[in-house]
């Protein structure tokens, strides 16, 4: 009797176990198509366009926010002709702007010669050829010369998303800073040079500096937060056996020449550490009218570049064990760890400033128009979620 009872118990266990396995397999059979469908679901692709003239950390932050709204970010860089027709001549030509945008760590793909306005044909191309799900723009209005909204069509079809504009900086503002420097330098007043440098480095929140020039430049007080620095940072240190490369500089008005030098430097090792000189160091070595961008603005621009792994905010002028050397690189030279890199592009910060100076009147008129629209933005802005 005991043997029969045990056999029945074993048989019952097998039957129950088989039933459970069968139900599980049946469930897996019906769930598998949905699982495969989830696995095959394509990434969300978002599109953002812009001029990206004299690219700065505000542009970079816009691209960062846009990328956070999808899995892949496609960026359209507006052509020189379109910028000239809608805003006036760009300071940096398309090839330089392409280098800048392509180097940003949040950008996956770049479209050159993008139109200034989202036309019906171009929007169809974005949706059909580039598989774009949403078109992104900041909360500042983008108005065409005829007064219409450049993104009206995208909004109409429900494929538009908005991000928060990074306040305190714009290409117009930066051009205005240079125009002020040109004006002050022409007077030969070194006291005003120092005053301007302090305003750029420690500015006054949304203060309009006119001074009789009519430029109406808005000088903003940029106060970086630890959160913003973390957002821009890679968040990773070098590996235990990494070959670490160090390069330093002002990186003022971060441009395509800077990008190319960082690219070459990164190619020499596994981890690129970039030293950013202080405002005071640059003023002492380059003149009282420099830098145009303050230390924290310059640091964020470098951090946004995919070739920079980490930055030292306020690096010393001399790479040495003490501060008594005439040559700032004397120690690394003596240790045999120094290499001089030449940028493949003949562009410097002075090049950018000369472009503004050589076309002073045109840029001043453009800035007067743009500063007025920026003033209206700050007066009329409403809350937009984002950072």
UniProtKB/TrEMBL annotation:
Name the GO terms of the biological process aspect.
Answer: phosphatidylethanolamine biosynthetic process
Lineage of the species this protein comes from = Eukaryota, Viridiplantae, Streptophyta, Embryophyta, Tracheophyta
**Polar residues: bias regions:** 193-202
The family classification in the record reads: Belongs to the cytidylyltransferase family.
The UniProt entry, under InterPro entries, shows: CCT, Cyt_trans-like, Ect1/PCYT2, Rossmann-like_a/b/a_fold
Name this protein carries in UniProt: ethanolamine-phosphate cytidylyltransferase
The answer to whether UniProt assigns keyword Transmembrane helix to this entry is yes
Classification via SUPFAM superfamilies: Nucleotidylyl transferase (SSF52374)
Q: Which GO terms describe its cellular component?
A: cytoplasm
Which keywords does this Swiss-Prot/TrEMBL entry list? Lipid biosynthesis, Lipid metabolism, Membrane, Nucleotidyltransferase, Phospholipid biosynthesis, Phospholipid metabolism, Transferase, Transmembrane, Transmembrane helix
Extract the GO molecular function terms from the UniProt entry.
ethanolamine-phosphate cytidylyltransferase activity
| Region annotation Disordered: where it falls in the sequence | 186-214
Membrane-spanning intervals of the chain: 12-32
Task: Quote the EC number.
Answer: 2.7.7.14
């Amino acid at each position: 009797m005991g043997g029969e009872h045990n056999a029945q118990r074993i048989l019952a266990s097998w039957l129950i176990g088989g039933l459970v396995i069968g139900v599980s397999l049946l469930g897996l059979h019906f769930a598998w198509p949905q699982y495969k469908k989830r696995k095959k679901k394509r990434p969300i692709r978002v599109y953002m366009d812009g001029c990206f003239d004299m690219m700065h950390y505000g542009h970079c932050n816009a691209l960062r926010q846009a990328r956070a709204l999808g899995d892949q970010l496609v960026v359209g860089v507006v052509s020189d002709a379109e910028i000239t027709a809608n805003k006036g001549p760009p300071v940096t030509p398309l090839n330089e702007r392409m280098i800048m945008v392509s180097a940003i760590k949040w950008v996956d793909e770049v479209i050159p010669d993008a139109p200034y306005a989202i036309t019906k044909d171009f929007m169809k191309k974005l949706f059909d050829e580039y598989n774009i799900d949403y078109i992104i723009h900041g909360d500042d209005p983008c108005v065409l010369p005829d007064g219409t909204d450049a993104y009206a069509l995208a909004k109409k079809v429900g494929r538009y998303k908005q991000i928060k504009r990074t306040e305190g900086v714009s290409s117009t503002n930066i051009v205005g800073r240079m125009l002020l420097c040109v004006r002050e330098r022409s007077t030969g007043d070194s006291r005003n040079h120092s005053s301007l440098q302090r305003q750029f480095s420690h500015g006054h929140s949304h203060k309009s500096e006119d001074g009789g020039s009519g430029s109406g430049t808005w000088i903003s007080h940029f106060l970086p937060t630890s959160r913003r620095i973390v957002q821009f940072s890679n968040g990773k240190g070098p590996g235990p056996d990494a070959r670490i490369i160090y390069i330093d500089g002002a990186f003022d008005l971060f441009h395509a020449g800077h990008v190319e030098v960082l690219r070459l430097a990164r190619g020499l090792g596994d981890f690129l550490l970039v030293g950013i000189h202080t405002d005071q160091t640059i003023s002492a070595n380059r003149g009282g009218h420099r830098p145009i961008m303050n230390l924290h603005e310059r640091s964020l621009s470098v951090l946004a570049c995919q070739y920079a792994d980490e930055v030292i905010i306020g690096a010393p002028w001399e790479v040495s064990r003490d501060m008594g050397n005439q040559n700032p690189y004397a120690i690394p030279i003596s240790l045999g760890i120094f290499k001089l890199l030449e940028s493949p592009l003949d562009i410097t910060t002075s090049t950018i400033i000369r472009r503004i100076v050589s076309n002073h009147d045109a840029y001043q008129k453009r800035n007067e128009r743009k500063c007025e629209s920026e003033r209206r933005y700050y007066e009329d802005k409403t809350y937009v979620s984002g950072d």
